Amino acid sequence: MTDILLAAAAGPGDLCAALRAGRRGGTGPCRVAVLDPTHRRIEQALALIDRGEPWQGGNDLWFAPRPAPPGGTVFLFPGLDARTGPPPDDVLRWLGRPAGPASGSTGLAERTRATLRLNRVLHAALLRAGIVPDAMAGHSAGEWSALFAAGLFAEPAFEDFARTMGAAPVPDVVFAAVGLPAEAAARLARDEPGVVLSHDNAPDQSVLCGDEDAVGRCLARIADPEVPRRVLPFRSGFHSPMLAPYLPGFSAVFDRVPLARPSVPVWSATTVAPYPDDETELRALLNRHLVEPVRFRAVIERLYRGGARVFVQVGCGSLTRFVAATLAGRPHRTVSAGSATRPQLDQLRWAAAALWAEGHAPDLPALGLTTPAATPPPSTGPAPSTGPAPSHGPASGIGPAPSTGPAPSTGPAPSHGPASGIGLAPSPGPAPSTHPVAGAYEAAVAAVSASVETVYRTWRERT
To answer: Which pLDDT belongs to residue 165?
Structure first.
């Protein structure tokens, strides 16, 4: 597992002093997390801390000078995405479960199964790590993941659902993502009766769906060459009227799923409201979900007005970016428990570290992450055993019952001694003071460097 440095202190000055002295852990509201803490990243973290402004994930650094504003936590489940991440076999081993089936196809059925299974595994892992939601929502097929995770769809029906849902016949139409708000994207299709707006994702991204040639003509109407546009690598017609003739195949799958009361509200991106309690209304909404547009931007706005401030992506996709674009300029936090590029267990641990930095209390030891006191007392002998750590398995009705045996080993715990693993020797004394102008310059350089690396990594992921 990749090393993650966690450090906390009463304020930025004390936190910088701790990092310069090679100390990890500590207590206090001012916190930093550094993934793979090389000497260069430690220096960047120091510059960001000196600047004193929050930094949320760029260049794998997370700095919070104070706890995040209070608010609810929402789990967001992604649907099919142009990018697919590594399989979650490492997370399954950590959970003590067998590895999942190999994925050998990029067809709709296989993509759907892989997405639903990844979302399910990461949801169980988040609960095991003590990270729990106040509400759930999903994007497209991710809404089905949310229904299973909340217990509204009965857990025993999952395998049959995942195996059959993506195998139902669908129309041969394409999706195209465009870097425009929904209103502007819809105008592109004004003269194309075979093209509709299927997704309103964020102020800067919408999706059109329809006949391939007609969608191509819509994209050709975008005059600005800087506006992103891309035909997505899967076809289904989901969230468009084109799917209506194919609904019976999907309704048959829905009808086989027993329903139960959810553990937390699940928000519909069709109605921009929680799923109804009435079974007849709920099953009707499941069908509407497939032929009406995804209003993801509206769901995020509504959740925010209701007090949500932390949004955790439970899977691999673009939902954190959609949330950030929708809530730009307003206090909120987004983290992703899944990744398109790094091992899923590393990403899960990084998500927990980020939430810890923001003042949350995930089960860090369960993930091989610990934050001992900055200056531990000298050892006087073996510490008395306190027994096994409490289980943090899935809550009743959400997933399989938690294991009653010992948690699977995650490998040796990282060392937390002075200077261990961070590439800096302990300071022989107080760090020399930095001239305020020089400090501001170093912070600006570090911020620009981190931003450039983040933009470059994002560009590589998308191309």
So the answer is: 84
